[in-house]
Structures are given as C-alpha cells and as structure tokens.
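Milestone 3.1: sequence recovery, worked example.
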C-alpha cells in the first residue's frame, strides 16, 4: 500500500493498524490537522476510507472505517463514505425519459435490478492539488457506447476534501461537458458506527414511503419523522428511505461514549436518506440533492430534487462533519 503525502511515500501511520497492510495494493492519501485524520482511497471510487481522531487509547472513528476486503475487492460500499455522481440512489428499471428520448442504464451492474448511485463511484479518481490537510480529487466521464448502461453524458466531477476548524469538509462540484442538457444529482454516502445506544437527530417534515424494491411511492407522515426530532434509535424501524424538508443538519450521537458528530449541508442538499436496516450493523445518514428515482418522479421539483445542467454549467456545494466530545 502506498500512502501519498507531501513527501511522495511514507510509512503507514501506527494508528492505522486496523488496516491489514499486506492486503492492500492501492494508493492512500492521508490528511492531517491536529488530532484529526482523513484517509482517502482515490482508486476505490474516490472514497473516504476513514475519518478518525488520534487519542491516547488509539483511533476514535467518527465514520465506520473501511475493512481490508474493501480494498481487495475495490468496493466503495465497504468504505467509510463515497461520492454519488451524477445521481443518488436508484433509478427504476435503470431507465428514464429525458429530452425526448430514453436514457437506458441497464446492464451496468448485474448485482442491481435498478441503476444505483450513478457511475463515478465505480471508477478510480485522480489526485490533484493537495496540502497536509486538504486534497482535490477529480473524475472525468467520457461516454462509451460499447459499455452497456454507460451514462450517455460527458461530465467532470470533483471533490475538495479538507480538515479545517475541527471538522471534515467535502465540497462536491460538477460541470456538464456534454453539448446538450444533462439531468443531474449528487451526494455522499457516509456510514457511521452503530451501537445499541446510537441515536440520530434531524428535523424533517415527511418521509418517502417505499415499495419492496426500495423505490418511493408517496410522501407522507411516519413515526420515524417524530423519532428523528427526538433522537431515533437505528433499531426503531427498518429504514431505507428519503426524508423531505430537513434543515440540512443532522447529528449522530453515541451518548454512552459521550460523543456526537454533526453533519451540515449547503443547498441544494435538500434531501436526506436514512439507511438503518433491521438486525444489521449498517447505519447511513446521507445528504443528497435528489430523492430516489427523481428522474422518473412526478411532483413538484422541491419535493424530488435534482436539476438539469445546461452545457458548460457548473454546480458546487459543501458538506461538513463536526465531531464533539464531552
């Protein structure tokens, strides 16, 4: 494993012993600011492998750290978080109508019946400018008609990831490089440590109910809405749902460990996904610009999100995770 820093190669930091060095064959970028660390795996979908704090008792992980298998299998789904471009979550039957034609995304991944999370997470990202506490990653997509289900629009995606003011900041941006309008959405997919005492706080107004394929059916009330305002246990419901009209702030708390992590988002991250499956160790609270299947959704734009980028148009917005102890 290579660890790219201001000096091209350096040994793996002692607190990263939770990784199996022998199992890794990828480039890592480690950011440092005070006691905070962020470890990036550009070759694995531009993913974040870990966000933690160095303590006398060892690393205190604020996101679920990647395991060696995530690197062996180049699997962003097993990372701490990964970027979502050019849409978030599922597209029903991997197709939608746009600008007078059908966009067919079928065949790009046999694991999923519906297109999932766009395509940027399936490719290596390039490392750009960096300092000890920040790095820029970028991904350029060139459509290939020979690839089944390839996204048919040319675009550029970027992440500026930095440790600043005691927080992890990720600025996502994209530009439509196609000569025609392009439907678009973006987000990040963070996984959090989940224990029996974990609580999730967020002020939301309604939940998108979903069918057996985890595709939205209608927006309405649900007990999880009130539970989130009061501090919801991930074990309270079986969730893989979008929530509407959140205040763009959510807190994941571990009261038994006397710590919490607050996530804030800029517009247009006006939608939030909670993935808290029953009897499972996974927990995701995801800031996104569009609901599941937004390109097929019928309804007011503010309820489904997403946008259309004109040729050459750019979009950018920032996410922030602030850890607190005590």
């Amino acid at each position: 494993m290579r660890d790219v820093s201001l000096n091209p190669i350096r040994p793996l930091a002692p607190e990263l012993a939770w990784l199996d060095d022998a199992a890794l064959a990828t480039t890592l970028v480690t950011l440092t600011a005070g006691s905070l660390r962020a470890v990036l795996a550009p070759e694995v979908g531009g993913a974040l492998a870990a966000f933690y704090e160095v303590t006398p008792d060892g690393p205190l992980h604020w996101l679920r750290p990647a395991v060696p298998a995530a690197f062996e299998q180049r699997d962003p789904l097993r990372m701490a978080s990964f970027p979502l471009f050019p849409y978030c979550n599922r597209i029903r039957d991997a197709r939608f109508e746009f600008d007078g034609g059908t966009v067919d995304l079928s065949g790009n991944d046999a694991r999923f019946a519906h297109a999932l999370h766009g395509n940027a997470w399936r490719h290596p990202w390039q490392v750009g400018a960096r300092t000890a506490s920040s790095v820029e990653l970028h991904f350029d997509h060139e459509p290939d008609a020979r690839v089944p289900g390839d996204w048919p629009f040319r675009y550029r995606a970027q992440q500026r990831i930095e440790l600043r003011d005691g927080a992890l900041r990720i600025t996502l941006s994209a530009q439509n490089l196609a000569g025609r309008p392009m439907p678009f959405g973006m987000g990040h997919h963070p996984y959090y440590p989940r224990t029996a005492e974990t609580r999730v706080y967020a002020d939301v107004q309604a939940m998108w109910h979903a069918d057996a394929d985890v595709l939205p059916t209608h927006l309405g009330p649900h007990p999880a809405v009130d539970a989130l305002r009061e501090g919801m246990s991930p074990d309270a419901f079986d969730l893989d749902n979008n929530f509407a009209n959140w205040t763009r702030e959510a807190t994941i708390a571990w009261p038994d460990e006397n710590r919490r992590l607050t996530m804030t988002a800029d517009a247009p991250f006006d939608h939030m996904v909670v993935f808290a499956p029953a009897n499972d160790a996974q927990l995701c609270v995801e800031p996104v610009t569009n609901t599941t299947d937004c390109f097929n959704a019928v309804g007011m734009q503010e309820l489904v999100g997403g946008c259309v980028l004109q040729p050459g148009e750019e979009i950018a917005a920032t996410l922030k995770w602030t850890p607190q102890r005590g």
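The helical segments are 68-72, 223-230, 301-304. Residues 1-12 have pLDDT under 50 and may be disordered.
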